[in-house]
Amino acid sequence: MPITKSAKKAVKVNEKRRSRNRHFLAIYKESVKSLEKLMKADKKDPKELLVALSEVYSRIDTLEKKNILEKNTAARRKSSFAKIVKSVSV
Prior knowledge:
The chain is mainly alpha-helical. Helices cover 83% and strands 0% of the residues.
């Protein structure tokens, strides 16, 4: 248990940040799952894949903007998703 006033505040701040980070990461994971579901489907519609990919890009950009992901990590993830979608749609 925190004893000092600053330690108590640090606990509150950490809980708030953790909650916020988990919320945005959950939204990101949800969009990734929908993209993966489309990639595993028997009939792959390229337009649907691109819409899902743009949704994932949007989520990654949001995480980067809110300092949940570092910019190089965001770029790496976007690149890997683009590579995967390209290989699936070909």
